[in-house]
Amino acid sequence: MDSNLQLVARGDHALARALASAGSSEALASSSRLMHDRLEAPLRAALTDHGSSDPVRVAELVQSIVYALSRMIEGGLALAKATSLARELLSPYLDRDSR
Q1: What's the CA gap between 13 and 11, in Å, rounded?
Q2: What is the C-alpha to C-alpha distance for residues 18 and 31, in angstroms, rounded to an integer?
Q3: pLDDT for 55-89, tens place per residue?
Q4: pLDDT tens digit sequence for 13-58
Q5: Considering only CA atoms, which of 95, 52, 69, 57 is closest in space to residue 9?
Q6: How far apart are CA 51 and CA 36, in angstroms?
Q7: pTM (2 decimals)?
Q8: Cα–Cα distance for residue pair 25/77, rounded to 1 Å
Q9: Of 56, 54, 63, 53, nearest to 90 (Cα)?
Q10: Alpha-carbon distance 99 to 91, whole Å?
Q11: What secondary structure, in 3-state letters, does the chain show?
Q12: Rounded to whole angstroms, what are the CA distances from 31 to 28, 37, 77, 95, 96?
């Protein structure tokens, strides 16, 4: 998640959106789906390792958080604050192994 948010803060995500609006929408949509699937696969594996009852859907929820934070960063929220909010929201789940 941190890496995704860093890309957004650097402006990479905005660049990708600009390219998408200028190119073939079908080809770029397919490429975007493939990229997001590749990013989500290790997340699903980690969720499985952490004992998630439904890693596919939980991964979708995590991706929704990343998407929301991405929009916030693009709207001016500092990367450090976005990362802090993500950790605040997800830490109970991530800290579950330490209990």
Answers
A1: 5
A2: 14
A3: 999 999 988 998 899 999 999 999 999 999 999 99
A4: 555 555 555 556 676 666 666 766 777 888 899 889 988 999 999 9
A5: 69
A6: 22
A7: 0.68
A8: 29
A9: 63
A10: 12
A11: CHHHHHHHHHCHHHHHHHHHHHCCHHHHHHHHHHHHHHHHHHHHHHHHHCCCCCHHHHHHHHHHHHHHHHHHHHCCCCHHHHHHHHHHHHHHHHHHHHC
A12: 5, 10, 28, 34, 35
What's the sign of the alpha-carbon dihedral 6, 75, 47, 29?
Answer: negative
Tokens 């958080």 found at: 65
Tokens of 98: 């330490």
